[in-house]
Amino acid sequence: METMTRPELFRLMFCCMSIPVLLTAQSTISPSDAKLRIIAIGAHPDDCDIKFAGTAAKFAKAGHLVKFLSVTNGDAGHQTQRGVELAQRRRAETQESARRLGIAEYEVLNNHDGMLTPSLEVREQIIRAIRQWKADFVIAPRTNDYHPDHRYTGVLVQDAAYMVVVPNVVPGVPALRRNPVFMYYEDNFQEPTPFRPDVAVSLDDVWDLKISALDAQVSQMYEWLPWVDGRLADVPTDPAARRQWLSKTRSRPISPAVRAALEKRYGADAAQIQHAEAFKLCEYGRRPDGEELDRFFPR
Ligand SMILES: [Zn+2]
User: Fold this and answer.
1) Rounded alpha-carbon distances, angstroms, from residue 84 to 23, 80, 88, 113, 125
2) What is the pLDDT of residue 34?
3) Tens of pLDDT along 117-151?
4) How many C-beta neighbours within 10 Å does residue 17 have?
5) 4 Cα: distance to centroid of ligand 1 (angstroms)
6) What average pLDDT does range 33-37 have in this prediction?
7) 42 alpha carbon to ligand 1 midpoint, in Å?
8) What is the C-alpha to C-alpha distance for residues 237 and 222, in angstroms, rounded to an integer?
9) Which residues surround ligand 1, an ion (CB under 5 A)?
């Protein structure tokens, strides 16, 4: 589907599908009214942790329901292990990460790592997952990532963004009556457009928790990713030392755009913030204004 403006989308819905107007009504959800239901979607069983663990922990602490979904089982992400053995190990790591973060659920779909394509079959898996979670928010990668699995996860979620409200698509799972808000994780890719945050969250008070979640991803943080980077020999063996090493190597400078987004929310305190996660609104799905986003997202 080509990009549509909201009036075009309304026209399509009225002329083709006879869906009641309440589907796209601009009503708001107040975090104090109800528990928000958030689903973060990543290609691999550590992607949501890397991009969203801090904000997820804050949402969870505030009583909201967060689910992480990995679209592949991660069975290619290691230098010596592979296949079912690796997939099982990584699944166990996701469950430990979820436990440490206090999120409601971490699901891993059984698609092969490194072989993801934006197929109808996987699109339907994603539609099903978003509907079953009754998501208010869906968070996913942008579609200009270096890794094809990340890129196609972005495409698959975009492809699901409208279909989650269409009852005749995946009829076995009731369609959502209200389109979720779709957002993107922060990335550093500059083409075709640099990431422009719509909301940023300080992680300074949950940074140790985020590192604790990543620390549960032993096969990735201490084995595969350092091996890919040619620095496996730098990883300390002592558990406390390697957690410190992880915190140091996972720290990133905050970009000027994200710093500006932090200033909007935190005022003068933003200058002191050392760790943050940031998110951009997708043009599909429901689009809350800046004030509503500020109210939804934890501080
Ligand atoms: Zn990944």
Assistant:
1) 42, 13, 6, 11, 21
2) 82
3) 999 999 999 999 999 999 999 999 999 999 999 99
4) 12
5) 29
6) 85
7) 7
8) 9
9) 43-44, 47
The rounded distance, in Å, linking the Cα atoms of 157 and 44 is 14
Q: Is 273 left (phi over 0), alpha (psi -120 to 50) or beta?
A: beta
Give which of 198, 215, 213, 188 is closest to 264, Cα–Cα: 198
252-263: pLDDT as tens digits:
999 999 999 999
Pairing mode of beta strands 105-111, 65-72: parallel
Is 252:176 a contact under the CB 8 Å cutoff? Answer: no
Mean pLDDT of 172-190: 98
Cα-to-centroid distance, 78 and ligand 1 (Å): 12
CA angle, 101 then 56 then 138, to 5°: 135
Neighbours of 209 (CB within 10 A): 20
Closest CA to 99 of 202, 246, 212: 212
Distance CA 298, CA 36 (A): 12
